[in-house]
Specification:
Elements: E1 9-12, E2 20-22, E3 33-34, E4 37-39, E5 47-53, E6 56-63, E7 78-82, E8 86-90, E9 125-132, E10 135-136, E11 142-144, E12 146-152, E13 155-163, E14 179-183, E15 191-199
Antiparallel strand pairs: 1-15, 2-5, 3-4, 4-15, 5-14, 6-9, 6-15, 7-8, 7-14, 9-12, 10-11, 12-13
The structure holds magnesium ion.
């Protein structure tokens, strides 16, 4: 497991879901936690972190079940929504030579991963996500789209792509506001562990060499 840096905000360390709530209410999240592992609560719907963020570096680990009788979007489906609005797909896409826009690591239905970095089902995998939130003007119009860089199992699968807008199933609400990390209940017992983020400043200093 990758150890979080000192300045990380821990979202799930294996203990409990105190940092999470249900997507549609302020009720506590009630997905099962056992042996340090969070499992999708099937039929319990999505959960969201209480912590919200704009620009952030996010790390998480996931494991898809082995479902040999299933295919396509029914095979180990879950997802990680950035700010509740932009889904990075979680799926068992192991072995496909050319992954598509619905496969594991895809920014759902917008960008296929550059390469297939999937491990086999039942093996732990990592996502390291660098998210740049959309920029809006004072009227709330988007002037710069969200940008995502994704390393899947340490391999770059998205290189600073510009996300044209929220993906399917996005939570409502204006762009430009901070939003939570959201985990998807798509009916499959996908597992998660070691979830944390580091808030990123939106700009560095404007000085050449401040003293
Ligand atoms: Mg999904």
């Amino acid at each position: 497991m990758v150890r979080p840096p000192e300045n990380a905000v821990i979202l799930f360390d294996g203990t409990d879901l105190s940092g999470w709530r249900r997507r549609d209410s302020d009720e506590p999240a009630d997905w099962p936690v056992e042996n340090g592992i969070l499992t999708v609560g099937i039929g319990k719907r999505d959960i969201v972190s209480v912590e919200t963020f704009r620009d952030a570096y996010i790390h998480l680990e996931f494991r898809v079940p082995d479902m040999p009788d299933k295919t396509g979007q029914k095979k180990g489906n879950s997802g990680v929504y950035l700010q509740g609005k932009y889904e990075i797909q979680v799926l068992d896409s192991y072995g496909w030579a050319v992954p598509g826009k619905g496969d594991c690591g895809a920014i759902y239905d917008q960008y296929a991963p550059l390469v297939n970095a999937c491990k086999p089902p039942m093996e732990w995998q990592t996502y390291d996500i660098i998210f740049r939130a959309p920029r809006v003007d004072e009227a709330g119009n988007v002037v710069e789209h969200a940008r995502i860089t994704l390393l899947h199992n340490g391999i770059v699968v998205h290189n600073n792509v510009s996300v044209k807008g929220p993906t399917g199933g996005a939570m409502p609400g204006p762009l430009g506001e901070p939003g939570p990390l959201r985990l998807q209940d798509h009916g499959d017992p996908v597992q998660y562990r070691n979830i944390w983020l580091v808030h990123l400043p939106e700009e560095g200093s404007s000085e050449y060499a401040p003293r």
